[in-house]
Specification:
The complex is a heterodimer of chains A (about 110) and B (about 110).
Chain A (H helix, E strand, L loop, with lengths): L4 E3 L2 E4 L5 E6 L6 E7 L6 E7 L2 E5 L7 E4 L6 E5 L8 E8 L7 E2 L3 E5 L1
Parallel strand pairs in A: 2-11
Antiparallel strand pairs in A: 1-3, 3-8, 4-5, 4-9, 5-6, 7-8, 9-10, 9-11
Chain B lengths: L3 E2 L5 E4 L4 E7 L7 E6 L6 E6 L3 E5 L2 E6 L4 E6 L8 E9 L2 E4 L3 E6 L1
Parallel strand pairs in B: 2-11
Antiparallel strand pairs in B: 1-3, 3-8, 4-5, 4-9, 6-7, 7-8, 9-10, 9-11
Classes of the chains: A mainly beta (about 110), B mainly beta (about 110).
Chain lengths: ~110, ~110
């Protein structure tokens, strides 16, 4: 199966620590998206890449958040100085170029204590 | 403001009935519309996409789009208990998607 994969699946961290998540998209897809989802809400857009270029960032993405996609393959999302409000499911999705179907990975559930 | 609205539910239907899920959106220029299913604790799973006015059928699922009314719906025929999940509507705004809050569907045996 060559679907979207994410690592780790679960992360528990203490407030103030830094965390990094990884996403491997479907290999033929050149777009990669990061979303955050909290209980009872739909996914909220954070940022997206086309190949290695980060084309858009949500206003939700504070200075503590940074994302990279070196060489247009996998992507990482880093959260610095985590806060309890960062506790959420972080979802990665990939698609072909354009507003086409996005396929989600299993997500990384972050708990900040 | 980019908005996608859905009735949060829960919507309860008996097994074998038709479930009807609705979604409205605020941006008239949106061109791409998607329905996702999300089981509790899992990530969203794509069910259908629709780009043109009218109906699109795939197995037990039918998506309906009315751009003039800024309305998209999903019908699930012969509902099964395994269809019990949250259904998310997603709409493109430019190159990005905005998701609604989801409608929780419960299919009663």
């Amino acid at each position: 199966d060559t679907g979207v994969s994410q690592d780790p699946r679960h992360k528990i961290t203490k407030r103030g620590q830094n965390v990094t998540f990884r996403c491997d998209p479907i290999s033929e897809h050149n777009r990669l998206y990061w979303y955050r989802q909290t209980l009872g809400q739909g996914p909220e857009f954070l940022t997206y890449f086309q190949n290695e270029a980060q084309l858009e960032k949500s206003r939700l993405l504070s200075d503590r958040f940074s994302a990279e996609r070196p060489k247009g393959s996998f992507s990482t999302l880093e959260i610095q100085r985590t806060e309890q409000g960062d506790s959420a499911m972080y979802l990665c999705a990939s698609s072909y170029e354009g507003p086409y179907e996005q396929y989600f990975g299993p997500g990384t559930r972050l708990t900040v204590t | 403001q980019k908005e996608v609205e859905q009735n949060s539910g829960p919507l309860s239907v008996p097994e074998g009935a038709i479930a009807s899920l609705n979604c409205t959106y605020s941006d008239r220029v949106s061109q791409s519309f998607f329905w996702y299913r999300q089981y509790s604790g899992k990530s969203p799973e794509l069910i259908m996409s629709i780009y043109s006015n009218g109906d699109k059928e795939d197995g037990r699922f039918t998506a309906q789009l009315n751009k003039a009314s800024q309305y998209v719906s999903l019908l699930i025929r012969d509902s099964q208990p395994s269809d019990s999940a949250t259904y998310l509507c997603a709409v493109n705004y430019g190159q990005n998607f905005v998701f609604g809050p989801g409608t929780r569907l419960s299919v009663l045996p």
